[in-house]
Amino acid sequence: xxxxxxxxxxxxxxxxxxxxxxxxxxxxxxxxxxxxxxxxxxxxxxxxxxxxxxxxxxxxxxxxxxxxxxxxxxxxxxxxxxxxxxxxxxxxxxxxxxxxxxxxxxxxxxxxxxxxxxxxxxxxxxxxxxxxxxxxxxxxxxxxxxxxxxxxxxxxxxxxxxxxxxxxxxxxxxxxxxxxxxxxxxxxxxxxxxxxxxxxxxxxxxxxxxxxxxxxxx
Length: 218
Known about the structure:
- Pfam families: Cutinase.
- GO terms for molecular function: carboxylic ester hydrolase activity.
- Keywords: Disulfide bond, Hydrolase, Signal.
- There is one protein chain.
- α2 (42-51) packs parallel to α7 (201-217) and α3 (69-90) packs across α4.
- Strands 2-1-3-6-8-7 form a six-stranded parallel sheet, with helices on both faces. Strands 4-5 form a two-stranded antiparallel sheet.
- It has a single domain (21-217), classed as Rossmann fold (3-Layer(aba) Sandwich), CATH 3.40.50.
- It is of the alpha/beta class.
- The chain is built from seven helices and eight strands.
């Protein structure tokens, strides 16, 4: 299974010509158990393409499974890093938006801030500053690596998530680029017991996230 996803990632990594660079580009990591593609958070990406015509988007190819979660999220992190670095190398003046839901939000944070260490998995470094600088906005909904009392947190959560981000994996350097949504009761980003909370972020927060991204791409 790992080899299959690695090969798919390599095959689907776009070869970008200079004339194909968009002013804005969105990379999306779907939630656990969603079908391949952008998943529910793709609705937010669609709103952004309406605000900025010509914006391009692509989805991370990764398992997005709950079984063997640590391996799945690590594969997602590697795949998103590949998409990001390939795009920025080809289109260094483009503005990039990263967004993810649930496990996809975990992937976004691990790409930018360093990751791993979940369920005994190996740690991974963040992307180089060159690539981080090209990312203008990060939207994370229901992130299991949620940590309380961060300036970029949005919502009503009152405790850390299932796999809170470690001190050496802080996203504070990117705090002005991030909005991370987590509400009280979410069983993943807050260890609550209400699944509907976890499933409701796009309906509740899409317009807020849309407005935030607009300020970063304007």
